[in-house]
Specification:
alpha+beta, five-stranded mixed β-sheet, four-stranded antiparallel β-sheet, 18% strand, signal
Protein backbone atom coordinates (compact mmCIF):
# COMPACT_ATOMS: atom_id res chain seq x y z
CA UNK A 1 0.00 0.00 0.00
CA UNK A 2 1.42 3.35 -1.09
CA UNK A 3 1.35 6.47 1.04
CA UNK A 4 1.66 10.17 0.29
CA UNK A 5 5.39 10.29 0.93
CA UNK A 6 7.55 7.27 0.11
CA UNK A 7 6.79 3.56 -0.12
CA UNK A 8 8.76 1.25 2.16
CA UNK A 9 10.91 0.11 -0.76
CA UNK A 10 11.56 3.66 -1.95
CA UNK A 11 12.49 4.73 1.55
CA UNK A 12 14.78 1.74 1.93
CA UNK A 13 16.45 2.50 -1.40
CA UNK A 14 16.88 6.17 -0.43
CA UNK A 15 18.42 5.13 2.89
CA UNK A 16 20.79 2.82 1.06
CA UNK A 17 21.78 5.49 -1.45
CA UNK A 18 22.47 8.05 1.27
CA UNK A 19 24.52 5.52 3.23
CA UNK A 20 26.48 4.61 0.14
CA UNK A 21 27.12 8.28 -0.66
CA UNK A 22 28.29 8.96 2.88
CA UNK A 23 30.65 6.00 2.72
CA UNK A 24 32.02 7.15 -0.63
CA UNK A 25 32.72 10.58 0.81
CA UNK A 26 34.41 9.03 3.81
CA UNK A 27 36.48 6.39 2.13
CA UNK A 28 36.64 7.10 -1.60
CA UNK A 29 34.61 5.93 -4.59
CA UNK A 30 35.67 2.31 -4.18
CA UNK A 31 34.94 2.01 -0.49
CA UNK A 32 31.42 0.53 -0.48
CA UNK A 33 29.97 -2.77 -1.67
CA UNK A 34 26.17 -2.72 -1.98
CA UNK A 35 24.10 -5.91 -1.99
CA UNK A 36 20.33 -6.11 -2.43
CA UNK A 37 18.16 -9.14 -1.77
CA UNK A 38 14.59 -10.06 -0.79
CA UNK A 39 15.27 -12.28 2.22
CA UNK A 40 15.51 -11.36 5.88
CA UNK A 41 18.67 -11.89 7.89
CA UNK A 42 17.60 -14.27 10.63
CA UNK A 43 20.66 -14.12 12.85
CA UNK A 44 24.27 -13.00 13.18
CA UNK A 45 25.07 -15.73 15.71
CA UNK A 46 27.09 -18.51 14.04
CA UNK A 47 25.83 -20.99 16.62
CA UNK A 48 22.38 -20.92 15.06
CA UNK A 49 23.14 -19.82 11.50
CA UNK A 50 21.46 -22.28 9.15
CA UNK A 51 20.31 -20.23 6.17
CA UNK A 52 22.18 -18.80 3.21
CA UNK A 53 20.99 -15.26 3.80
CA UNK A 54 22.47 -15.10 7.30
CA UNK A 55 25.44 -17.24 6.35
CA UNK A 56 26.74 -14.79 3.73
CA UNK A 57 27.24 -12.20 6.49
CA UNK A 58 28.35 -14.49 9.29
CA UNK A 59 31.04 -16.08 7.09
CA UNK A 60 32.61 -12.64 6.67
CA UNK A 61 32.46 -11.79 10.38
CA UNK A 62 33.53 -15.14 11.83
CA UNK A 63 36.02 -17.81 10.87
CA UNK A 64 36.26 -21.56 11.29
CA UNK A 65 39.16 -23.83 12.20
CA UNK A 66 39.47 -24.97 8.60
CA UNK A 67 38.08 -23.82 5.25
CA UNK A 68 37.86 -24.99 1.68
CA UNK A 69 40.98 -24.58 -0.42
CA UNK A 70 40.23 -22.04 -3.14
CA UNK A 71 37.40 -23.28 -5.35
CA UNK A 72 38.04 -26.94 -4.48
CA UNK A 73 35.27 -28.47 -2.35
CA UNK A 74 37.23 -31.71 -1.84
CA UNK A 75 40.12 -30.17 0.11
CA UNK A 76 40.28 -28.21 3.36
CA UNK A 77 43.07 -25.98 4.58
CA UNK A 78 43.94 -24.23 7.86
CA UNK A 79 42.16 -21.01 8.85
CA UNK A 80 42.08 -20.39 12.61
CA UNK A 81 43.96 -23.66 13.07
CA UNK A 82 47.47 -23.93 11.71
CA UNK A 83 47.67 -27.72 11.72
CA UNK A 84 45.97 -30.83 13.05
CA UNK A 85 46.73 -34.47 13.71
CA UNK A 86 44.46 -37.50 13.62
CA UNK A 87 44.78 -40.22 16.23
CA UNK A 88 43.06 -43.27 17.67
CA UNK A 89 42.29 -44.64 14.24
CA UNK A 90 40.48 -41.49 13.13
CA UNK A 91 38.53 -40.95 16.34
CA UNK A 92 40.69 -38.12 17.73
CA UNK A 93 41.64 -34.77 16.20
CA UNK A 94 44.13 -32.38 17.79
CA UNK A 95 44.17 -28.78 16.51
CA UNK A 96 46.90 -26.21 16.98
CA UNK A 97 45.39 -22.72 16.93
CA UNK A 98 46.85 -19.67 15.23
CA UNK A 99 48.69 -17.08 17.31
CA UNK A 100 48.13 -13.34 17.02
CA UNK A 101 44.44 -13.48 16.14
CA UNK A 102 42.08 -10.92 17.65
CA UNK A 103 38.33 -10.70 17.91
CA UNK A 104 36.46 -7.55 16.96
CA UNK A 105 36.37 -6.59 20.65
CA UNK A 106 40.16 -6.69 20.80
CA UNK A 107 40.19 -9.92 22.83
CA UNK A 108 42.81 -12.50 21.84
CA UNK A 109 41.78 -15.83 20.34
CA UNK A 110 42.59 -18.72 22.67
CA UNK A 111 41.83 -22.41 22.85
CA UNK A 112 39.19 -21.60 25.47
CA UNK A 113 37.20 -19.72 22.80
CA UNK A 114 37.16 -22.72 20.50
CA UNK A 115 36.27 -25.08 23.35
CA UNK A 116 33.42 -22.79 24.40
CA UNK A 117 32.16 -22.48 20.82
CA UNK A 118 31.80 -26.19 20.17
CA UNK A 119 30.42 -27.00 23.60
CA UNK A 120 27.86 -24.21 23.19
CA UNK A 121 26.82 -25.62 19.83
CA UNK A 122 26.33 -29.08 21.32
CA UNK A 123 24.37 -27.71 24.28
CA UNK A 124 22.05 -25.37 22.34
CA UNK A 125 21.61 -27.76 19.40
CA UNK A 126 18.15 -27.18 17.87
CA UNK A 127 16.39 -27.71 14.55
CA UNK A 128 17.13 -24.04 13.78
CA UNK A 129 20.83 -24.78 13.45
CA UNK A 130 23.24 -27.15 11.74
CA UNK A 131 24.52 -28.40 15.07
CA UNK A 132 22.74 -31.71 14.61
CA UNK A 133 25.51 -32.97 12.33
CA UNK A 134 28.21 -31.76 14.73
CA UNK A 135 26.42 -33.58 17.54
CA UNK A 136 26.13 -36.68 15.37
CA UNK A 137 29.92 -36.72 14.97
CA UNK A 138 30.88 -35.90 18.56
CA UNK A 139 28.07 -37.43 20.62
CA UNK A 140 26.73 -40.16 18.35
CA UNK A 141 23.29 -38.57 18.16
CA UNK A 142 21.77 -35.68 16.23
CA UNK A 143 19.57 -34.76 19.21
CA UNK A 144 20.17 -32.50 22.19
CA UNK A 145 19.96 -33.52 25.86
CA UNK A 146 16.22 -32.83 26.06
CA UNK A 147 15.45 -35.24 23.25
CA UNK A 148 18.16 -37.82 23.98
CA UNK A 149 18.98 -38.60 27.60
CA UNK A 150 22.28 -40.21 26.58
CA UNK A 151 23.64 -36.67 26.08
CA UNK A 152 25.36 -35.65 29.32
CA UNK A 153 27.78 -32.96 30.40
CA UNK A 154 30.46 -35.61 30.76
CA UNK A 155 30.01 -36.58 27.12
CA UNK A 156 30.05 -32.99 25.90
CA UNK A 157 33.07 -31.92 27.95
CA UNK A 158 35.09 -34.98 26.96
CA UNK A 159 34.14 -34.67 23.28
CA UNK A 160 35.61 -31.13 23.13
CA UNK A 161 38.39 -30.02 25.42
CA UNK A 162 41.59 -28.04 25.61
CA UNK A 163 44.80 -29.89 26.32
CA UNK A 164 46.93 -26.87 27.15
CA UNK A 165 46.71 -24.73 24.02
CA UNK A 166 45.63 -27.65 21.83
CA UNK A 167 41.98 -28.20 21.00
CA UNK A 168 41.06 -31.89 21.13
CA UNK A 169 38.00 -33.57 19.62
CA UNK A 170 37.17 -37.14 20.62
CA UNK A 171 34.66 -38.97 18.42
CA UNK A 172 32.72 -42.10 19.41
CA UNK A 173 33.20 -43.49 15.88
CA UNK A 174 35.11 -42.68 12.71
CA UNK A 175 33.47 -39.95 10.63
CA UNK A 176 35.02 -39.41 7.18
CA UNK A 177 33.14 -36.11 6.85
CA UNK A 178 34.29 -34.58 10.15
CA UNK A 179 36.84 -32.10 8.75
CA UNK A 180 34.40 -30.76 6.16
CA UNK A 181 31.79 -30.33 8.90
CA UNK A 182 34.23 -28.04 10.71
CA UNK A 183 34.39 -25.83 7.61
CA UNK A 184 30.69 -24.97 7.96
CA UNK A 185 30.29 -21.36 9.14
CA UNK A 186 27.93 -22.54 11.90
CA UNK A 187 31.13 -23.72 13.59
CA UNK A 188 32.64 -20.22 13.46
CA UNK A 189 34.65 -19.54 16.62
CA UNK A 190 33.02 -17.00 18.92
CA UNK A 191 34.55 -14.60 21.43
CA UNK A 192 33.74 -16.49 24.66
CA UNK A 193 34.74 -13.69 27.01
CA UNK A 194 32.49 -11.25 25.15
CA UNK A 195 29.64 -13.77 24.90
CA UNK A 196 29.62 -14.36 28.64
CA UNK A 197 29.77 -10.63 29.38
CA UNK A 198 26.68 -9.88 27.28
CA UNK A 199 24.57 -12.63 28.85
CA UNK A 200 25.15 -15.73 26.76
CA UNK A 201 25.80 -19.15 28.36
CA UNK A 202 28.63 -18.97 30.92
CA UNK A 203 30.15 -22.23 29.68
CA UNK A 204 29.89 -24.12 32.96
CA UNK A 205 28.45 -27.46 34.00
CA UNK A 206 26.32 -25.69 36.61
CA UNK A 207 24.21 -23.90 33.98
CA UNK A 208 24.41 -26.05 30.85
CA UNK A 209 20.99 -27.66 31.30
CA UNK A 210 19.35 -24.23 31.29
CA UNK A 211 20.66 -23.70 27.77
CA UNK A 212 19.84 -27.09 26.23
CA UNK A 213 17.92 -26.52 23.01
CA UNK A 214 17.46 -22.85 23.88
CA UNK A 215 16.32 -20.53 21.09
CA UNK A 216 19.32 -18.26 20.57
CA UNK A 217 18.31 -17.04 17.11
CA UNK A 218 17.64 -13.52 18.36
CA UNK A 219 19.94 -13.70 21.39
CA UNK A 220 22.61 -11.30 22.59
CA UNK A 221 25.34 -12.64 20.30
CA UNK A 222 23.01 -12.04 17.38
CA UNK A 223 22.73 -8.41 18.49
CA UNK A 224 26.39 -7.90 19.46
CA UNK A 225 28.54 -10.24 17.35
CA UNK A 226 32.30 -10.49 17.79
CA UNK A 227 34.29 -12.69 15.46
CA UNK A 228 37.78 -12.82 13.99
CA UNK A 229 36.62 -12.20 10.41
CA UNK A 230 37.61 -9.44 8.04
CA UNK A 231 34.43 -7.42 8.62
CA UNK A 232 32.63 -6.26 11.76
CA UNK A 233 29.11 -4.99 12.37
CA UNK A 234 28.42 -1.26 12.31
CA UNK A 235 24.65 -1.01 12.27
CA UNK A 236 21.54 -3.09 11.73
CA UNK A 237 17.87 -2.25 11.29
CA UNK A 238 14.85 -3.80 9.62
CA UNK A 239 15.96 -2.83 6.11
CA UNK A 240 19.74 -2.86 6.11
CA UNK A 241 22.92 -4.16 7.69
CA UNK A 242 26.16 -2.26 7.40
CA UNK A 243 29.64 -3.58 8.12
CA UNK A 244 33.13 -2.20 7.91
CA UNK A 245 36.58 -3.68 7.47
CA UNK A 246 38.17 -4.85 10.73
CA UNK A 247 41.47 -3.01 11.17
CA UNK A 248 42.81 -5.71 13.46
CA UNK A 249 42.27 -8.54 11.00
CA UNK A 250 45.09 -11.10 11.16
CA UNK A 251 44.98 -12.42 7.59
CA UNK A 252 47.43 -11.57 4.84
CA UNK A 253 44.53 -10.78 2.50
CA UNK A 254 43.36 -7.52 4.01
CA UNK A 255 39.92 -6.28 2.94
CA UNK A 256 40.14 -4.10 -0.16
CA UNK A 257 36.60 -2.75 0.15
CA UNK A 258 36.07 -0.65 3.26
CA UNK A 259 32.31 -0.89 3.78
CA UNK A 260 29.56 -3.36 2.95
CA UNK A 261 25.84 -2.60 3.00
CA UNK A 262 23.30 -5.40 2.60
CA UNK A 263 19.83 -4.09 1.85
CA UNK A 264 16.50 -5.90 2.04
CA UNK A 265 14.47 -4.86 -1.02
CA UNK A 266 11.47 -7.18 -1.42
CA UNK A 267 10.40 -6.01 -4.88
CA UNK A 268 12.33 -7.56 -7.76
CA UNK A 269 11.72 -4.57 -10.05
CA UNK A 270 13.23 -2.19 -7.49
CA UNK A 271 16.36 -4.34 -7.22
CA UNK A 272 16.73 -4.46 -10.99
CA UNK A 273 16.34 -0.68 -11.27
CA UNK A 274 18.92 -0.02 -8.55
CA UNK A 275 21.35 -2.44 -10.19
CA UNK A 276 21.04 -0.91 -13.66
CA UNK A 277 21.59 2.57 -12.18
CA UNK A 278 24.74 1.38 -10.45
CA UNK A 279 23.30 1.81 -6.96
CA UNK A 280 23.77 -1.90 -6.18
CA UNK A 281 26.73 -4.15 -6.99
CA UNK A 282 24.99 -7.52 -6.46
CA UNK A 283 21.28 -8.29 -6.56
CA UNK A 284 19.12 -11.39 -6.15
CA UNK A 285 17.30 -12.22 -9.41
CA UNK A 286 16.41 -15.43 -11.30
CA UNK A 287 17.97 -16.56 -14.56
CA UNK A 288 15.05 -15.38 -16.70
CA UNK A 289 15.42 -11.78 -15.48
CA UNK A 290 19.17 -11.87 -16.04
CA UNK A 291 18.80 -12.99 -19.66
CA UNK A 292 15.88 -10.70 -20.56
CA UNK A 293 16.60 -7.52 -18.60
CA UNK A 294 20.25 -7.41 -17.57
CA UNK A 295 22.51 -9.32 -19.95
CA UNK A 296 24.38 -6.99 -22.30
CA UNK A 297 23.38 -3.78 -20.53
CA UNK A 298 26.11 -1.16 -19.82
CA UNK A 299 28.03 -1.83 -16.62
CA UNK A 300 26.57 -5.31 -16.18
CA UNK A 301 28.67 -8.46 -15.98
CA UNK A 302 27.26 -11.98 -15.69
CA UNK A 303 28.94 -15.13 -14.42
CA UNK A 304 27.21 -18.26 -15.69
CA UNK A 305 27.60 -22.04 -15.83
CA UNK A 306 28.70 -22.26 -12.21
CA UNK A 307 28.93 -25.46 -10.23
CA UNK A 308 25.55 -26.39 -8.81
CA UNK A 309 25.54 -28.02 -5.37
CA UNK A 310 21.81 -28.19 -4.74
CA UNK A 311 19.76 -31.35 -5.27
CA UNK A 312 16.01 -31.24 -5.79
CA UNK A 313 13.19 -33.58 -6.68
CA UNK A 314 9.49 -34.22 -6.25
CA UNK A 315 8.84 -36.60 -3.37
CA UNK A 316 5.99 -39.09 -3.37
CA UNK A 317 4.49 -39.72 0.06
CA UNK A 318 3.88 -43.43 0.61
CA UNK A 319 1.50 -42.84 3.52
CA UNK A 320 -0.56 -39.72 2.96
CA UNK A 321 -2.61 -38.65 5.96
CA UNK A 322 -6.27 -39.52 5.58
CA UNK A 323 -8.64 -36.58 5.33
CA UNK A 324 -5.90 -34.29 4.06
CA UNK A 325 -7.93 -33.09 1.10
CA UNK A 326 -5.15 -34.13 -1.28
CA UNK A 327 -6.44 -37.65 -1.95
CA UNK A 328 -10.08 -37.03 -2.83
CA UNK A 329 -12.29 -39.98 -1.98
CA UNK A 330 -9.39 -41.87 -0.43
CA UNK A 331 -10.13 -44.79 -2.73
CA UNK A 332 -8.91 -46.02 -6.08
CA UNK A 333 -12.25 -45.27 -7.71
CA UNK A 334 -11.25 -42.55 -10.15
CA UNK A 335 -12.22 -39.84 -7.67
CA UNK A 336 -9.21 -40.15 -5.38
CA UNK A 337 -6.37 -42.40 -4.26
CA UNK A 338 -5.74 -44.49 -1.14
CA UNK A 339 -3.35 -43.15 1.48
CA UNK A 340 -0.68 -45.64 0.39
CA UNK A 341 -1.09 -44.93 -3.33
CA UNK A 342 2.65 -44.28 -3.81
CA UNK A 343 3.58 -47.42 -1.87
CA UNK A 344 3.36 -49.28 -5.18
CA UNK A 345 6.69 -48.80 -6.96
CA UNK A 346 4.95 -48.96 -10.34
CA UNK A 347 2.90 -45.88 -9.46
CA UNK A 348 6.14 -44.06 -8.66
CA UNK A 349 7.76 -45.37 -11.86
CA UNK A 350 4.81 -44.11 -13.86
CA UNK A 351 5.17 -40.62 -12.40
CA UNK A 352 8.94 -40.58 -12.91
CA UNK A 353 8.69 -41.65 -16.58
CA UNK A 354 6.02 -38.96 -17.14
CA UNK A 355 8.27 -36.05 -16.22
CA UNK A 356 9.73 -34.42 -19.32
CA UNK A 357 13.21 -33.42 -18.17
CA UNK A 358 14.46 -32.21 -21.60
CA UNK A 359 11.50 -29.85 -21.99
CA UNK A 360 11.95 -28.56 -18.44
CA UNK A 361 15.62 -27.84 -19.13
CA UNK A 362 14.74 -26.02 -22.33
CA UNK A 363 11.78 -24.00 -21.02
CA UNK A 364 12.84 -23.23 -17.46
CA UNK A 365 16.63 -23.43 -17.51
CA UNK A 366 17.07 -21.93 -20.98
CA UNK A 367 18.82 -25.07 -22.19
CA UNK A 368 21.32 -25.09 -19.32
CA UNK A 369 22.00 -28.17 -17.23
CA UNK A 370 21.73 -31.94 -17.53
CA UNK A 371 19.51 -34.74 -16.17
CA UNK A 372 20.61 -36.31 -12.87
CA UNK A 373 20.40 -39.92 -11.78
CA UNK A 374 20.63 -39.29 -8.03
CA UNK A 375 19.76 -36.64 -5.44
CA UNK A 376 23.44 -35.85 -5.10
CA UNK A 377 25.12 -33.00 -6.99
CA UNK A 378 27.21 -34.32 -9.85
CA UNK A 379 30.04 -32.07 -8.62
CA UNK A 380 30.32 -34.17 -5.43
CA UNK A 381 32.40 -37.29 -4.82
CA UNK A 382 30.24 -40.40 -5.02
CA UNK A 383 28.15 -39.35 -8.02
CA UNK A 384 28.22 -42.11 -10.64
CA UNK A 385 28.08 -40.38 -14.02
CA UNK A 386 27.97 -43.75 -15.79
CA UNK A 387 24.49 -44.48 -14.46
CA UNK A 388 21.82 -43.37 -16.92
CA UNK A 389 19.25 -40.95 -15.54
CA UNK A 390 15.53 -41.73 -15.67
CA UNK A 391 14.07 -40.90 -19.07
CA UNK A 392 10.86 -39.23 -20.14
CA UNK A 393 9.11 -42.17 -21.77
CA UNK A 394 5.30 -42.16 -22.11
CA UNK A 395 5.22 -45.80 -23.18
CA UNK A 396 7.26 -46.83 -20.14
CA UNK A 397 4.97 -44.74 -17.94
CA UNK A 398 1.88 -46.33 -19.48
CA UNK A 399 3.21 -49.85 -18.87
CA UNK A 400 4.04 -49.02 -15.24
CA UNK A 401 0.57 -47.59 -14.59
CA UNK A 402 -1.01 -50.64 -16.22
CA UNK A 403 0.85 -52.88 -13.74
CA UNK A 404 0.19 -50.68 -10.72
CA UNK A 405 -2.17 -51.94 -8.05
CA UNK A 406 -2.80 -55.13 -10.02
CA UNK A 407 -4.21 -53.17 -12.95
CA UNK A 408 -6.68 -51.12 -10.89
CA UNK A 409 -4.89 -47.81 -11.49
CA UNK A 410 -5.27 -48.12 -15.25
CA UNK A 411 -8.79 -49.53 -15.09
CA UNK A 412 -10.29 -47.16 -12.51
CA UNK A 413 -8.13 -44.07 -12.90
CA UNK A 414 -7.25 -41.69 -10.07
CA UNK A 415 -7.52 -38.12 -8.84
CA UNK A 416 -4.75 -36.63 -6.73
CA UNK A 417 -3.68 -33.13 -5.66
CA UNK A 418 -0.02 -32.12 -5.60
CA UNK A 419 1.50 -28.96 -4.11
CA UNK A 420 4.06 -26.36 -5.04
CA UNK A 421 5.33 -23.26 -3.26
CA UNK A 422 3.12 -20.33 -4.26
CA UNK A 423 5.09 -17.86 -6.34
CA UNK A 424 7.74 -20.41 -7.32
CA UNK A 425 7.29 -20.26 -11.08
CA UNK A 426 9.80 -23.04 -11.80
CA UNK A 427 8.01 -25.46 -9.46
CA UNK A 428 4.65 -24.60 -10.96
CA UNK A 429 5.96 -25.16 -14.48
CA UNK A 430 7.39 -28.54 -13.49
CA UNK A 431 4.06 -29.58 -11.96
CA UNK A 432 2.19 -28.44 -15.06
CA UNK A 433 4.47 -30.50 -17.31
CA UNK A 434 3.93 -33.54 -15.12
CA UNK A 435 0.15 -33.03 -15.02
CA UNK A 436 -0.10 -32.66 -18.80
CA UNK A 437 1.89 -35.81 -19.52
CA UNK A 438 0.15 -38.00 -16.95
CA UNK A 439 -3.34 -36.93 -17.96
CA UNK A 440 -2.51 -37.54 -21.64
CA UNK A 441 -1.87 -41.23 -20.86
CA UNK A 442 -5.38 -42.03 -19.69
CA UNK A 443 -8.51 -39.81 -19.61
CA UNK A 444 -9.27 -41.29 -16.18
CA UNK A 445 -6.10 -39.77 -14.68
CA UNK A 446 -6.51 -36.39 -12.96
CA UNK A 447 -3.74 -34.36 -11.28
CA UNK A 448 -4.72 -31.14 -9.48
CA UNK A 449 -2.03 -28.55 -8.81
CA UNK A 450 -2.27 -26.48 -5.62
CA UNK A 451 -0.11 -23.47 -4.72
CA UNK A 452 0.59 -23.10 -1.00
CA UNK A 453 2.63 -20.79 1.19
CA UNK A 454 6.10 -22.07 2.04
CA UNK A 455 5.40 -21.90 5.76
CA UNK A 456 2.39 -24.16 5.25
CA UNK A 457 4.31 -26.71 3.20
CA UNK A 458 7.15 -27.12 5.68
CA UNK A 459 5.01 -27.10 8.82
CA UNK A 460 5.57 -30.39 10.65
CA UNK A 461 1.82 -30.84 11.15
CA UNK A 462 1.15 -30.41 7.43
CA UNK A 463 3.98 -32.51 5.97
CA UNK A 464 2.13 -35.87 6.37
CA UNK A 465 -0.87 -34.45 4.52
CA UNK A 466 1.00 -33.70 1.31
CA UNK A 467 0.95 -36.26 -1.50
CA UNK A 468 3.76 -34.69 -3.51
CA UNK A 469 5.94 -31.62 -2.98
CA UNK A 470 9.28 -30.32 -4.15
CA UNK A 471 12.10 -31.37 -1.82
CA UNK A 472 15.50 -29.75 -2.08
CA UNK A 473 18.76 -29.61 -0.19
CA UNK A 474 21.80 -27.34 -0.26
CA UNK A 475 24.90 -28.80 1.40
CA UNK A 476 25.97 -28.06 4.94
CA UNK A 477 29.31 -29.71 4.30
CA UNK A 478 30.96 -31.03 1.15
CA UNK A 479 30.48 -34.73 1.65
CA UNK A 480 28.05 -37.02 -0.19
CA UNK A 481 26.63 -38.25 3.12
CA UNK A 482 25.00 -34.86 3.65
CA UNK A 483 22.74 -35.59 0.67
CA UNK A 484 22.46 -39.37 0.64
CA UNK A 485 21.51 -39.69 4.31
CA UNK A 486 19.22 -36.69 4.06
CA UNK A 487 17.18 -38.04 1.14
CA UNK A 488 17.48 -41.81 1.35
CA UNK A 489 18.13 -42.98 4.92
CA UNK A 490 15.06 -44.16 6.84
CA UNK A 491 16.38 -42.05 9.74
CA UNK A 492 17.36 -39.10 7.53
CA UNK A 493 15.46 -35.88 6.91
CA UNK A 494 13.20 -36.59 3.94
CA UNK A 495 12.70 -40.37 3.78
CA UNK A 496 10.78 -40.50 7.09
CA UNK A 497 8.56 -37.66 5.88
CA UNK A 498 7.56 -39.60 2.77
CA UNK A 499 7.43 -42.90 4.67
CA UNK A 500 10.09 -44.50 2.51
CA UNK A 501 12.12 -47.27 4.07
CA UNK A 502 14.70 -49.40 2.31
CA UNK A 503 16.76 -51.74 4.49
CA UNK A 504 19.26 -52.37 1.70
CA UNK A 505 19.93 -48.68 1.22
CA UNK A 506 20.13 -48.15 5.00
CA UNK A 507 22.84 -50.80 5.22
CA UNK A 508 24.89 -49.25 2.44
CA UNK A 509 24.57 -45.77 3.98
CA UNK A 510 25.73 -47.07 7.36
CA UNK A 511 28.78 -48.70 5.80
CA UNK A 512 29.64 -45.56 3.80
CA UNK A 513 29.45 -43.42 6.95
CA UNK A 514 31.83 -45.70 8.82
CA UNK A 515 34.71 -45.99 6.37
CA UNK A 516 37.41 -43.60 5.21
CA UNK A 517 38.09 -45.71 2.10
CA UNK A 518 37.08 -43.25 -0.63
CA UNK A 519 36.91 -45.90 -3.35
CA UNK A 520 34.61 -48.09 -1.28
CA UNK A 521 32.39 -45.13 -0.46
CA UNK A 522 32.08 -44.35 -4.18
CA UNK A 523 31.05 -47.96 -4.83
CA UNK A 524 28.41 -47.82 -2.11
CA UNK A 525 26.93 -44.55 -3.32
CA UNK A 526 26.77 -45.92 -6.87
CA UNK A 527 24.83 -48.92 -5.54
CA UNK A 528 22.46 -46.67 -3.60
CA UNK A 529 21.89 -44.49 -6.68
CA UNK A 530 21.02 -47.49 -8.86
CA UNK A 531 18.62 -49.01 -6.36
CA UNK A 532 16.95 -45.66 -5.62
CA UNK A 533 16.53 -45.11 -9.35
CA UNK A 534 15.04 -48.58 -9.83
CA UNK A 535 12.63 -48.01 -6.95
CA UNK A 536 11.74 -44.50 -8.24
CA UNK A 537 11.70 -42.85 -4.81
CA UNK A 538 11.86 -39.32 -6.27
CA UNK A 539 11.26 -37.47 -9.52
CA UNK A 540 14.76 -36.06 -9.84
CA UNK A 541 15.14 -32.53 -11.13
CA UNK A 542 18.01 -31.75 -13.50
CA UNK A 543 21.15 -29.93 -12.48
CA UNK A 544 20.81 -26.19 -12.92
CA UNK A 545 24.09 -24.30 -13.34
CA UNK A 546 24.39 -21.22 -11.17
CA UNK A 547 24.31 -17.73 -12.61
CA UNK A 548 24.41 -14.24 -11.13
CA UNK A 549 24.85 -10.64 -12.32
CA UNK A 550 27.27 -8.11 -10.86
CA UNK A 551 28.51 -4.65 -11.69
CA UNK A 552 31.59 -4.78 -13.89
CA UNK A 553 33.44 -2.48 -11.49
CA UNK A 554 33.73 -5.44 -9.09
CA UNK A 555 36.99 -7.36 -9.39
CA UNK A 556 37.82 -10.75 -7.93
CA UNK A 557 34.78 -12.51 -9.39
CA UNK A 558 35.45 -15.48 -11.68
CA UNK A 559 34.71 -19.15 -12.22
CA UNK A 560 38.21 -19.91 -10.91
CA UNK A 561 37.56 -18.23 -7.57
CA UNK A 562 33.94 -19.39 -7.17
CA UNK A 563 33.43 -21.91 -4.38
CA UNK A 564 29.80 -23.11 -4.07
CA UNK A 565 30.25 -23.85 -0.38
CA UNK A 566 30.65 -20.13 0.35
CA UNK A 567 27.23 -18.61 0.98
CA UNK A 568 27.79 -15.23 -0.67
CA UNK A 569 26.58 -14.94 -4.28
CA UNK A 570 30.03 -14.66 -5.83
CA UNK A 571 31.33 -17.76 -4.02
CA UNK A 572 34.10 -15.64 -2.53
CA UNK A 573 34.65 -13.76 0.71
CA UNK A 574 34.15 -10.00 0.60
CA UNK A 575 37.79 -9.43 1.56
CA UNK A 576 38.86 -10.87 -1.81
CA UNK A 577 36.75 -8.45 -3.84
CA UNK A 578 37.72 -4.96 -4.96
CA UNK A 579 36.20 -2.10 -6.94
CA UNK A 580 37.74 -0.07 -9.72
Amino acid sequence: MKNKTLSAVALATLTLTLAACNNKQAGGADSTLVIQQSADILTLDPGTTYDTSSGQIVENMYETLVGYKGSDITKVEPVLATEWQEGQGGKEYRFTLRDGVKFHTGNDLTCADAEYTFRRNLVTNTADSGNWFLSESLLGTASNAKDDTSVTWAKISSAVRCDGDTLVFTLPAVDPAFLTKLAYIGQGVVDSRHAKEIGEWDGTEATWKDWVGKDILGGELNKQPSGTGAYKLVNRDANAISLTAFDGYWGEDKPKIKNVILQKVPEEAARVQAFLKGDADFIEVPRAIISTQLQGKPGVAVLDDLTNTTAAGFSMNQKIEAGSGMIGSGKLDGKGVPTDFFKDADVRRGFVASFDVPTYIEQVQEGKGNPRNFLLPDSFPGYDSNLEAAKFDPELAKAAFQRAWGGQVWQNGFTISVSYRAGAQTQQTAMELLKKNIESLNPKFKVNIVGKEWSELISSKNVPKEAMVMTAWAPDYADPDNFVSTFYSSTGYYAPRINAQDAQIDGWIKEARGTTDAARRDELYAQIAKRALDEAYYIIMPAQPGVFPYRDTIKGVSADTFNPMIAFTSGTYWKNLSKE
